[in-house]
Amino acid sequence: MDNFDKKILNVLHEDSRLTPAQIAPMVGLGEKQVAERIKAMEECEIIAKYTTLFNTEKLSDDIVTALIEVKVTPQMSSGFDAIAKNIYQFDEVKAVYLMSGAYDLCITIEGKNLREVSRFVSEKLSTMRDIISTATHFILKKYKTEGVILDKDDREEKRQFLI
User: Fold this and answer.
1) What does the alpha-carbon distance between residue 91 and residue 120 come to, in Å, rounded to a whole number?
2) Of the residues 18, 109, 115, 143, which has the maximum number of CB atoms within 10 A of its CB?
3) Across the 163 residues of the chain, what is the mean pLDDT of every consecutive 10-residue run?
Protein backbone atom coordinates (compact mmCIF):
# COMPACT_ATOMS: atom_id res chain seq x y z
CA MET A 1 0.00 0.00 0.00
CA ASP A 2 1.41 3.36 -1.01
CA ASN A 3 0.36 6.99 -0.57
CA PHE A 4 -2.03 6.84 -3.54
CA ASP A 5 -3.89 3.90 -1.96
CA LYS A 6 -4.06 5.80 1.33
CA LYS A 7 -5.45 8.87 -0.44
CA ILE A 8 -8.06 6.74 -2.21
CA LEU A 9 -9.07 5.15 1.11
CA ASN A 10 -9.39 8.58 2.75
CA VAL A 11 -11.63 9.81 -0.07
CA LEU A 12 -13.79 6.66 0.06
CA HIS A 13 -14.00 6.90 3.83
CA GLU A 14 -15.54 10.36 3.48
CA ASP A 15 -17.93 9.34 0.67
CA SER A 16 -17.99 5.78 -0.66
CA ARG A 17 -20.46 6.78 -3.38
CA LEU A 18 -17.75 8.51 -5.42
CA THR A 19 -16.77 6.87 -8.69
CA PRO A 20 -13.18 6.27 -9.84
CA ALA A 21 -13.69 9.14 -12.31
CA GLN A 22 -14.53 11.49 -9.43
CA ILE A 23 -11.72 10.20 -7.22
CA ALA A 24 -8.97 10.34 -9.87
CA PRO A 25 -8.39 14.12 -9.90
CA MET A 26 -8.57 14.23 -6.10
CA VAL A 27 -5.64 11.81 -5.73
CA GLY A 28 -3.61 12.64 -8.84
CA LEU A 29 -4.15 9.41 -10.78
CA GLY A 30 -6.08 8.35 -13.87
CA GLU A 31 -9.57 6.88 -13.62
CA LYS A 32 -8.40 3.41 -14.74
CA GLN A 33 -5.57 3.41 -12.17
CA VAL A 34 -7.99 4.35 -9.39
CA ALA A 35 -10.44 1.62 -10.44
CA GLU A 36 -7.64 -0.98 -10.49
CA ARG A 37 -6.37 0.07 -7.07
CA ILE A 38 -9.87 -0.03 -5.57
CA LYS A 39 -10.46 -3.49 -7.04
CA ALA A 40 -7.14 -4.74 -5.64
CA MET A 41 -7.96 -3.35 -2.18
CA GLU A 42 -11.38 -5.02 -2.31
CA GLU A 43 -9.85 -8.36 -3.33
CA CYS A 44 -7.35 -8.37 -0.47
CA GLU A 45 -10.06 -7.10 1.92
CA ILE A 46 -8.42 -3.81 2.82
CA ILE A 47 -11.82 -2.48 1.71
CA ALA A 48 -14.08 -4.88 3.57
CA LYS A 49 -17.49 -3.31 2.87
CA TYR A 50 -19.24 -0.18 1.68
CA THR A 51 -21.97 1.06 4.02
CA THR A 52 -24.60 3.73 4.44
CA LEU A 53 -24.88 5.75 7.63
CA PHE A 54 -28.49 6.23 8.77
CA ASN A 55 -29.71 8.88 11.15
CA THR A 56 -31.94 6.52 13.15
CA GLU A 57 -33.58 9.48 14.93
CA LYS A 58 -35.30 10.31 11.63
CA LEU A 59 -36.53 6.79 10.85
CA SER A 60 -40.07 5.79 11.74
CA ASP A 61 -38.86 2.42 13.03
CA ASP A 62 -37.33 2.67 16.47
CA ILE A 63 -34.07 0.83 16.85
CA VAL A 64 -32.53 0.25 20.26
CA THR A 65 -28.73 0.26 20.33
CA ALA A 66 -26.80 -1.04 23.31
CA LEU A 67 -23.14 -1.10 24.19
CA ILE A 68 -22.31 -4.15 26.28
CA GLU A 69 -19.09 -4.56 28.23
CA VAL A 70 -18.17 -8.20 28.75
CA LYS A 71 -15.71 -9.74 31.19
CA VAL A 72 -14.55 -13.19 30.10
CA THR A 73 -12.17 -15.98 31.00
CA PRO A 74 -9.76 -16.28 28.06
CA GLN A 75 -9.42 -19.77 26.60
CA MET A 76 -6.10 -21.58 26.88
CA SER A 77 -5.22 -21.92 23.20
CA SER A 78 -7.14 -19.07 21.58
CA GLY A 79 -7.31 -16.35 24.23
CA PHE A 80 -10.19 -13.99 23.46
CA ASP A 81 -10.51 -14.84 19.76
CA ALA A 82 -12.77 -17.91 20.05
CA ILE A 83 -15.09 -16.14 22.49
CA ALA A 84 -15.30 -13.09 20.23
CA LYS A 85 -16.07 -15.34 17.27
CA ASN A 86 -18.89 -17.04 19.17
CA ILE A 87 -20.34 -13.65 20.03
CA TYR A 88 -20.11 -12.02 16.60
CA GLN A 89 -22.03 -14.92 15.01
CA PHE A 90 -25.31 -13.52 16.39
CA ASP A 91 -27.30 -11.32 13.98
CA GLU A 92 -28.00 -8.73 16.69
CA VAL A 93 -24.28 -8.07 17.15
CA LYS A 94 -23.01 -5.15 15.05
CA ALA A 95 -19.47 -4.89 16.45
CA VAL A 96 -17.09 -6.69 18.83
CA TYR A 97 -13.88 -5.13 20.14
CA LEU A 98 -11.12 -6.40 22.43
CA MET A 99 -10.60 -3.69 25.03
CA SER A 100 -8.20 -2.70 27.75
CA GLY A 101 -9.54 -1.84 31.18
CA ALA A 102 -12.02 -3.47 33.53
CA TYR A 103 -13.86 -5.36 30.77
CA ASP A 104 -12.33 -7.50 28.05
CA LEU A 105 -14.78 -7.11 25.18
CA CYS A 106 -17.09 -4.34 24.05
CA ILE A 107 -20.09 -5.29 21.95
CA THR A 108 -22.63 -3.13 20.18
CA ILE A 109 -25.99 -4.66 19.35
CA GLU A 110 -29.26 -3.48 17.86
CA GLY A 111 -32.77 -4.63 18.62
CA LYS A 112 -36.36 -3.62 17.96
CA ASN A 113 -36.99 -2.74 21.60
CA LEU A 114 -35.51 -2.90 25.12
CA ARG A 115 -37.01 -6.33 25.71
CA GLU A 116 -35.28 -7.77 22.63
CA VAL A 117 -31.91 -6.39 23.74
CA SER A 118 -32.34 -7.60 27.31
CA ARG A 119 -33.33 -11.07 26.04
CA PHE A 120 -30.16 -11.19 23.98
CA VAL A 121 -28.07 -10.39 27.06
CA SER A 122 -29.90 -12.74 29.44
CA GLU A 123 -30.60 -15.69 27.11
CA LYS A 124 -27.72 -15.68 24.64
CA LEU A 125 -24.76 -13.71 25.92
CA SER A 126 -24.79 -14.32 29.68
CA THR A 127 -25.34 -18.05 29.24
CA MET A 128 -22.20 -18.53 27.15
CA ARG A 129 -19.36 -20.45 28.72
CA ASP A 130 -16.43 -18.22 29.75
CA ILE A 131 -18.62 -15.10 30.21
CA ILE A 132 -18.00 -13.82 33.75
CA SER A 133 -20.12 -10.66 33.73
CA THR A 134 -21.70 -8.02 31.53
CA ALA A 135 -22.62 -4.36 31.84
CA THR A 136 -25.24 -3.08 29.39
CA HIS A 137 -25.50 0.57 28.42
CA PHE A 138 -28.39 1.71 26.24
CA ILE A 139 -27.63 4.42 23.69
CA LEU A 140 -30.25 7.09 24.34
CA LYS A 141 -29.29 9.53 21.60
CA LYS A 142 -26.59 9.67 18.97
CA TYR A 143 -25.09 13.13 18.54
CA LYS A 144 -22.18 12.19 16.30
CA THR A 145 -21.24 8.89 14.73
CA GLU A 146 -18.60 7.94 12.16
CA GLY A 147 -17.49 11.58 12.21
CA VAL A 148 -20.94 12.83 11.19
CA ILE A 149 -22.98 15.19 13.39
CA LEU A 150 -26.53 13.84 13.29
CA ASP A 151 -28.45 16.66 14.96
CA LYS A 152 -29.22 19.44 12.46
CA ASP A 153 -29.19 22.11 15.17
CA ASP A 154 -25.76 20.92 16.32
CA ARG A 155 -24.41 21.12 12.74
CA GLU A 156 -25.72 24.68 12.32
CA GLU A 157 -24.28 25.68 15.70
CA LYS A 158 -20.90 24.21 14.72
CA ARG A 159 -20.96 26.20 11.44
CA GLN A 160 -21.70 29.42 13.31
CA PHE A 161 -18.88 28.68 15.74
CA LEU A 162 -16.44 28.21 12.87
CA ILE A 163 -17.41 31.51 11.20
Assistant:
1) 10
2) 109
3) 93 92 95 95 93 75 90 90 95 96 96 93 94 94 85 59 54
